Structure formats: C-alpha cells, structure tokens
Amino acid sequence: MTPTERILRDLVAFDTTSAKSNLELMAYVQDYLSSFGIASRLIHDATGNKANLWATVGPDRDGGLVLNGHTDCVPVVGEVWQSDPFTLTNRDGKLFGRGSADMKGFVAASLAAVPELIAMNLERPVHLALSHDEEIGCIGVRTLLRDLSDRGQKPAMCIVGEPTLMQVVTGHKGGRAYRCHFTGHAVHSSLAPQGQNAIESAAALVMFLKGVAADLAAGPSDADFDLVHSTLSVGMIQGGTAINIVPADATVTFEFRNLLEVDQQEIFDRIEGEVFSRILPEAQQRFPGASATFEQIYEYPAHAINANAPLVSAMKHIVGRNDHSKVAFGAEAGLFLRELGLPTVLCGPGSISVAHRPDEYVERSQLAKADAMLRRAAQEFCK
C-alpha cells in the first residue's frame, strides 16, 4: 500500500457518519501531524462533539494554498455492501469503503503529502482545512471560516478535494432546504367537511412547487453543468395518523439547487408568498386556527470562478488536462469564496457517481493522480 492508501485505510475505519462525532478521527490526524512537528488546532461546534481542524505546513504568513476536505460521510444503514463499509477493501484496483471517494481519499492524500511538503522548504504555506457536517448542508466549516477571519489569516487560494475524477471544476450549484408544516383541524372522517385537512394544504404546496421547478428548468442555464438549470424537488411528505381521521398535521420537505445567477431568496420568497397569500387563507376559511410555518434546514451558496482565472489555468496544467466543468452537487467552495474571498476550485480523486451508495470506492490510480497533483500544486503555488 502507498502512504495515501494506508492513511485512507485508517480514515475509513472511523465511522464519521454526520450524526456521530468525528473527534476520534481528528485525534488521529493531530497525532499524525504532530509526528512531523506540525501543530494543529481544533475548532469545535457548539456541542463539543465535533470539530474542524486547521494546520499549516511551511511558513506562518499570508498567501499560500488551502487544501479543504470534509471528514464526515453519509450513513450505511439499510445498504447492502459486498464488504464491511468501514474496512478498506481492495478489489481489482478499486478501494471500497464508506467515504473512500467522498471524500476521505483526498484527505488521505493531503496528509500523506505532509513529509514531502516539509522537505520542499516552502516559501508560502500549505494549509490543511478539515471540516465536519458537510454532508448535511456544509454546516461545520462555517465556524472554521469565522475563526480564520477573526484571526486575520489570508491564504491566497483553495482546492476543495471533492470527487471530480481529477478534473478541474470551476463551480457548483447553491442549495437550500426547508420544511413547511401545516396544521388543520382533526375530525372523524365521516364529518370531513367540518375539519381542515392539513394534507390538502400540503398537496397544494407540492403542486405549486412542481410549477416552480418547471419555471427554474425554463430559466437561466449554464452549459458547463451536466444538468444545466436550477432544480427543485420535494423529498418527503409526512401527515395523518389514521385513515378515518381528517389529518391535523402535515409536513412537506423540499430543496432547491440554484445556479449562481438565480437568487435563492427570490425562490423562497415566491414559495412563502404562495403559502401565506393563498394556501393558508383558504385553509383558514374552513378553520381559522389553521397555520403554516417554515423551517430552514440548510443553506449554502453557489460557487463559480472564471474559467480563465490564473488558478484555473494553473490547475489545468498541473493535472494535465485542458477541460473543466461545473457540478450540481453542493460543496464548501462557495463558502470559502463568500466568507474569505478565496479563489477556489474543486479537484479530487474518485467519482461522485459512486458516492452515497453501497460499495463506494476510489480507484488506486485516482489516488496516485491526487498525490501527483498535490506535489505539483505545492511547487507551483508555494515555492
């Protein structure tokens, strides 16, 4: 096994599903860095059970390169794997394990690069920025970014190592998710006209959301994305307790993913306006006590960097391919740009097509390419 593969084996063994703590993994990383004389600090969340990590290789000065990766992964509950998802397993040049592609492979490559980075006698720093809770809305990295801003640290650029098959990715969509909860008035189903059916209000919202999705599909587009327009989908509906009771509660959970030029707040304002100007008043005509509330689950901004930007041109040269693309999935790149103003690209080993599914894997050849990319990036940006 290569150093990157050995570290990946160790990282995969930590079950860092977003619902669980990542502190044991972070302790492993800190011990590893300490063995090379590299100090690191943790930035904990409000519970104290999760943390981000920041470490610097090279001189402690402005400029340099940030290598960003998230340490959490999605659950394996209900999935059927050919091997233990938390034991890295090699089959035909593919390393199977939860998080191997998304995105512990890049984290492992970044850590494996540390000895070589030290030996380079860097003129500008390489920073490691490891985060938590990316998978549930890019939540964790925000405390890290606030900490960096408060400390006045000013890196020059960032690589987010999401699985892109080592292609340079110049943008990703933004996203928001909401729950809308309706209350009505429960009665026996034989007296249905005397009640207020919360599921009917929820159904009215779902139909309206379908129309919003159609409008987004007909709106602005960007050919660099595989799915060229903004999207909206309803993911969950809950409501009712029994077939013979008019339901007093119903909840619709939905998300939208927007291009940079499509305003997130305008999308939500349109949806909220429909609920409070039409759907809820109609319900209150039947039962004045009917209500509707929205809860935002997550929000992260869209990201884009000009395809002709110096960072993009340099990265294309580094990875040895002249193409680029944008991705529909969310990432922390938009937050690095919004909060710190950092030019940021996505580029990492593995494919998003095998992430979040049973038998997730990263090819050994992809990890080798990541190793080479990190070496060349340090030489290009930090020497």
Automatic annotation (TrEMBL):
One molecular function GO term is: metal ion binding
* Chain ranges of the Peptidase M20 dimerisation domain: 170-273
Task: Kindly name one Pfam family recorded for this protein.
Answer: Peptidase_M20
* Keywords of the record: Amino-acid biosynthesis, Arginine biosynthesis, Cobalt, Cytoplasm, Hydrolase, Metal-binding, Zinc
Cofactor(s) recorded for this entry are: Zn(2+)
Top EC class of this enzyme:
hydrolase
Q: The organism sits in which domain of life?
A: Bacteria
UniProt keyword Ribonucleoprotein present: no
Keyword Hydrolase assigned to the entry: answer is: yes
Q: What are the EC numbers?
A: 3.5.1.16
Q: Which GO terms describe its biological process?
A: L-arginine biosynthetic process
Which NCBIfam families did the record assign?
AcOrn-deacetyl, PRK07522.1
Which family is it part of? Belongs to the peptidase M20A family. ArgE subfamily.
Q: Mind telling me what this protein is named? A: Acetylornithine deacetylase
